[in-house]
């Protein structure tokens, strides 16, 4: 809820409040995976041989501390400054005040990104044991046939959590950021205004408190649950079989650096395991990038508020992400799929998802913006929108107004164009007692008023007439569903294609590869691509802040190209994993009941011969075999 929910929901508000670019906000999201990668090898190796729940409890405690640190910028800065001391209208005779010497500059505010980096690093450090030791703890204490289903439940809650974060976090963004210290009656903007900053920090206080309350009972679970030794004994081996000498039995005889190197060597030489890791990395770039910036994309394309965009994403994520994850694990359990069948299913689902990705060909045209994509003197009905650059904001109609770009106060003229501010629209008079604010005497607005009291422009963006939302959301939801439905089967194939005593360490290696090549560069890559489509940056003096306007067409095309390439790579990796898989010589694709009973009996007898089962467990094993 906190890492993949609240963080992604508040990205656009944090950018706006602390003058951060999308590349920098993408780096904030990536810090979670950076910390996880740095800690995965020691945690999975030593934690795999220690008491796993103890590591999990400490991790959740660190996660909660990270959430509290993430809120610090709100409590250590001045109140959010929305409006200037004077109305931002055309004042021909007034002297222009120098705003560079007053208030917080963009550069000083953007330095708070380092606090967000640190908080997100603690989030990653705390979550490192959760998806490695937590998964293997479940897998070790469940029958093999049921393991995938229960792990699917675990991951489904890991999807429902972010969905809840999107929905609840979106509601918090409708609350003004400075609760209690600002008179809401004096505010001149609402949540639909592009300058609005919601209460982004509330969710982190809630999640931090919940994490602290969870850490203590979680750390109290035992090393293994009753009956777990029986479940280990009944597992039939499906590990990748390499002809020749088998070094896998040497792993785990003694702890140390040489043992780690031998484990890494065996895992790297397993081609099925490695190509499944590369597929996870390719899918990780997509999931991390879209989960971070999908609300921002919806906000930019359809001119929605950040809160409503986040809630739309949450509504899509609950059935698609949670349902896909749970269904994938259920299918493996229901049909008792083996490794080759699982990989074929992942390959088929990925191929089907590629055509649905072309939903990004449906983009919304940018609203006509005077001086940005349309000239001041052009009629919107006959002009082709072509981006002119923010240097064209000055025009003869506002030449005497002494306008500056310090404050972005968009208004919608009755001629259908949007203007940077009332000043740049040449408006010199505000209509008294109007809500929202309305302006008259606008020299740049090409509209003839019917009478003297009629307004020429109104505060806020012009409404978008884009018709694609009812078609975009179902197709985008389908892409999410087809992506998540492969997650549990792919995880099951990864766990099964390595020896049992290497599963925890192998899962840690997979997370390292998937994060170093996937979820770490993913948000940064997506943020950079989004920044490349920016056509109007926030400016104050010599500082550059967040992006104000994006090229919707180029934004959609960039995301389409990136998503298609990554999906094709996933298809190649799944196909390679399937072709290079070698099953053990004593395991057939179809296993009868008698064969499974024989395999279970020999496995238990082997453990009895080695002295691995005590007297009580021997009796239970004999009863289960009967």
From TrEMBL:
<feature type="transmembrane region" description="Helical">
    <location>
        <begin position="558"/>
        <end position="581"/>
    </location>
</feature>
<feature type="transmembrane region" description="Helical">
    <location>
        <begin position="55"/>
        <end position="75"/>
    </location>
</feature>
<feature type="compositionally biased region" description="Basic and acidic residues">
    <location>
        <begin position="616"/>
        <end position="626"/>
    </location>
</feature>
<feature type="transmembrane region" description="Helical">
    <location>
        <begin position="149"/>
        <end position="168"/>
    </location>
</feature>
<keyword id="KW-1003">Cell membrane</keyword>
<dbReference type="GO" id="GO:0043252">
    <property type="term" value="P:sodium-independent organic anion transport"/>
</dbReference>
<feature type="region of interest" description="Disordered">
    <location>
        <begin position="603"/>
        <end position="626"/>
    </location>
</feature>
<feature type="transmembrane region" description="Helical">
    <location>
        <begin position="114"/>
        <end position="137"/>
    </location>
</feature>
<feature type="transmembrane region" description="Helical">
    <location>
        <begin position="27"/>
        <end position="48"/>
    </location>
</feature>
<protein>
    <recommendedName>
        <fullName>Solute carrier organic anion transporter family member</fullName>
    </recommendedName>
</protein>
<feature type="transmembrane region" description="Helical">
    <location>
        <begin position="512"/>
        <end position="538"/>
    </location>
</feature>
<dbReference type="InterPro" id="IPR004156">
    <property type="entry name" value="OATP"/>
</dbReference>
<dbReference type="InterPro" id="IPR020846">
    <property type="entry name" value="MFS_dom"/>
</dbReference>
<dbReference type="GO" id="GO:0016323">
    <property type="term" value="C:basolateral plasma membrane"/>
</dbReference>
<keyword id="KW-0813">Transport</keyword>
<dbReference type="GO" id="GO:0015347">
    <property type="term" value="F:sodium-independent organic anion transmembrane transporter activity"/>
</dbReference>
<keyword id="KW-1133">Transmembrane helix</keyword>
<feature type="transmembrane region" description="Helical">
    <location>
        <begin position="199"/>
        <end position="221"/>
    </location>
</feature>
<keyword id="KW-0472">Membrane</keyword>
<feature type="transmembrane region" description="Helical">
    <location>
        <begin position="308"/>
        <end position="330"/>
    </location>
</feature>
<comment type="similarity">
    <text>Belongs to the organo anion transporter (TC 2.A.60) family.</text>
</comment>
<dbReference type="InterPro" id="IPR036259">
    <property type="entry name" value="MFS_trans_sf"/>
</dbReference>
<keyword id="KW-1015">Disulfide bond</keyword>
<feature type="domain" description="Major facilitator superfamily (MFS) profile">
    <location>
        <begin position="1"/>
        <end position="582"/>
    </location>
</feature>
<feature type="domain" description="Kazal-like">
    <location>
        <begin position="391"/>
        <end position="443"/>
    </location>
</feature>
<dbReference type="GO" id="GO:0006811">
    <property type="term" value="P:monoatomic ion transport"/>
</dbReference>
<feature type="transmembrane region" description="Helical">
    <location>
        <begin position="468"/>
        <end position="491"/>
    </location>
</feature>
<dbReference type="Pfam" id="PF07648">
    <property type="entry name" value="Kazal_2"/>
</dbReference>
<feature type="transmembrane region" description="Helical">
    <location>
        <begin position="342"/>
        <end position="363"/>
    </location>
</feature>
<keyword id="KW-0812">Transmembrane</keyword>
<dbReference type="Pfam" id="PF03137">
    <property type="entry name" value="OATP"/>
</dbReference>
<feature type="transmembrane region" description="Helical">
    <location>
        <begin position="264"/>
        <end position="288"/>
    </location>
</feature>
<keyword id="KW-0406">Ion transport</keyword>
<dbReference type="InterPro" id="IPR002350">
    <property type="entry name" value="Kazal_dom"/>
</dbReference>
<dbReference type="InterPro" id="IPR036058">
    <property type="entry name" value="Kazal_dom_sf"/>
</dbReference>
């Amino acid at each position: 809820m906190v890492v993949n929910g609240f963080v992604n929901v508040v990205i656009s508000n944090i950018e706006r409040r602390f003058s951060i670019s999308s590349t920098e906000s993408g780096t904030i999201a990536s810090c979670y995976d950076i910390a996880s990668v740095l800690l995965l090898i020691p945690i999975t190796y030593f934690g795999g041989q220690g008491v796993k729940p103890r590591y999990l409890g400490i991790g959740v405690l660190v996660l909660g501390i990270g959430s509290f640190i993430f809120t610090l910028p709100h409590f250590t800065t001045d109140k959010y400054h929305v409006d200037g001391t004077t109305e931002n209208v055309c004042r021909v005779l007034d002297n222009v005040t120098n705003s560079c010497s007053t208030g917080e500059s963009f550069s000083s505010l953007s330095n708070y990104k380092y606090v967000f980096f640190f908080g997100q690093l603690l989030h990653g450090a705390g979550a490192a044991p959760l998806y490695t030791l937590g998964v293997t703890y479940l897998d070790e204490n469940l029958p093999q046939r049921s393991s995938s289903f229960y792990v699917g439940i675990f991951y489904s809650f890991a999807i429902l959590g972010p969905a809840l974060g999107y929905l609840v976090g979106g509601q918090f963004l409708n609350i003004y950021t400075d609760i209690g210290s600002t008179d809401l009656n004096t505010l001149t903007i609402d949540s639909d205004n592009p300058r609005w900053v919601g209460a982004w920090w509330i969710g982190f206080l809630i999640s931090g408190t919940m994490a602290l309350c969870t850490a203590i009972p979680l750390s109290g679970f035992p090393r293994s649950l009753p009956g777990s030794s029986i479940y280990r004994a009944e597992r039939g081996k499906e590990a990748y079989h390499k002809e020749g000498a088998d070094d896998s039995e040497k792993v785990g005889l003694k702890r140390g650096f040489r043992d780690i190197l031998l484990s890494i060597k065996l895992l790297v030489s397993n081609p099925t395991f490695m190509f499944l890791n590369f597929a996870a990395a390719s899918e990780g770039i997509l999931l991390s990038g879209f989960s971070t910036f999908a609300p921002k994309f919806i906000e930019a394309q359809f001119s929605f508020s950040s809160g409503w965009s986040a809630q739309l994403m949450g509504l899509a994520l609950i059935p698609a992400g949670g349902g896909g994850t749970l269904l994938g694990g259920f299918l493996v359990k229901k049909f008792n799929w083996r490794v080759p069948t699982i990989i074929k299913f992942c390959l088929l689902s990925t191929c089907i998802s590629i055509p649905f990705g072309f939903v990004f060909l449906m983009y919304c045209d940018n609203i006509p913006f005077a001086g940005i994509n349309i000239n001041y003197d052009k009629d919107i009905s006959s002009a082709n929108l072509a981006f002119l650059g923010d240097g064209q904001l000055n025009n003869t109609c506002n030449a005497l107004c002494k306008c500056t770009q310090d404050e972005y106060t968009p208004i919608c003229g009755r001629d259908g164009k949007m203007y940077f501010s009332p000043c740049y629209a040449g408006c010199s008079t505000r209509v008294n007692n109007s809500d929202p604010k309305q302006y008259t005497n606008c020299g740049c607005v090409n509209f003839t008023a019917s009478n003297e009291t009629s307004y020429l422009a109104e505060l806020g963006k012009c409404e978008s007439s884009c018709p694609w939302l009812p078609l975009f959301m179902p197709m985008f939801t389908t892409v999410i569903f087809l992506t998540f439905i492969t997650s549990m089967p792919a995880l099951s194939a990864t766990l099964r294609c390595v020896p049992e005593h290497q599963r925890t360490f192998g899962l840690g290696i997979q997370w390292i590869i998937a994060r170093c090549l996937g979820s770490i560069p993913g948000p940064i890559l997506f943020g950079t691509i989004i920044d490349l489509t920016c056509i109007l940056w926030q400016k104050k003096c010599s500082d550059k802040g967040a992006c104000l306007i994006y090229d919707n067409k180029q934004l959609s095309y960039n995301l389409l190209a990136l998503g298609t390439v990554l999906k094709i790579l996933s298809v190649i990796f799944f196909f390679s994993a399937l072709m290079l898989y070698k099953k053990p010589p004593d395991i057939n694709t179809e296993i009868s009941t008698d064969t499974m009973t024989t395999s279970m009996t020999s496995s238990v007898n082997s453990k009895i011969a080695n002295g691995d089962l005590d007297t009580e467990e021997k009796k239970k094993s004999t009863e289960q075999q009967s």
